[in-house]
Write a structure and sequence with these properties.
Radius of gyration: 17 Å
Helix content: 40-55%
CATH topology: Rossmann fold
Order of helices and strands: EHEHEHEHEHEHHE
Number of strands: 7
Number of helices: 7
Largest sheet: 7 strands, parallel
CATH class: Alpha Beta
Number of domains: 1
Structural class: alpha/beta
Shape: globular
Strand content: 5-15%
Amino acid sequence: MAQPPVVLVVGASRGIGAACVDEFLRLGAVVHGTWRSPGANAERLQSRLGARARRCDLGAPADARAVIEAVVALDGRLDALVVAAGDYLPGTLEDHGSASIEAQLAAQVVGPARAFEAARTHLRAARGAVVFFGVAGLEGLRGRRRSAAYCAAKSALLVLVRSWSLEEATHGVRVNMVSPGVVPHPDADPETLDPAVLARVPLLGATTPGDLANAVRWLCSTEARHVTGVDLPVAGGFAL
C-alpha cells in the first residue's frame, strides 16, 4: 500500500495557503504548515495540524532550513512543497518607491528561494513537486498601474520557476506556478473586495481559495507528472 504524500505548505494559516491545507488533508496527505505571525489564524492552524504546524519567517534564512529538517525528522520525507507566503501590495510606484521594490523582491523572490533551496535534496529523493504563486497576467509583461512592485517581483519569481524546472528535471522534480486573479477572502487586501475590480473578471464570479487549491493539488499529483515550468492562471480570465 502506497504511503500518503508528505506535503509542506509555507504560509498555511490563512487564505490560499489555508485552502491548500484543506485540500491536501481531504486527500489523506500528511500535511505540515507554517505560520509567521501569532494570532487566531496561527492558533487555528496549530489546532488542526498539531506538531506539524510551525512558525516560519522566510526573511530569516535559518527558519526555512529548520522547518524542512523538522518535517523530515517527523515523517521521513518531503513529497511536495507549496509556497504561499508573501502579501499582496497595491499602490503605484510613486506611492511606494524603491524601498518597496526591495521589500517585495525579498518577500516574493528571496524568501521562496530559501524555502526551495532548503527542500531541494529531499524533493529530489522523492521526485517531488513544488508550487509557487504568481499573479494573473505575468505572461504578457504588462505595465501595472496599481501593483507594479508586487508584479515585478512575481515576474522575477516566474523566471526562477522556469529555471528551476530546467535544472531539476533530470532529478524528477517538477516546479510550477499558479497565478491567481481576484480572490476575496477574510484576510485579503481590501482592494480585492472592490465591486469594480470584481466586475472586471470575464468569467463571472470571483476566484476562490479552493479553486487555487484544486490547481495546486493537481500540479502536485501524478496526473501532472509531465507538467513542469508552467505558469497556470486560475483567474477567470482576469488580466487577459
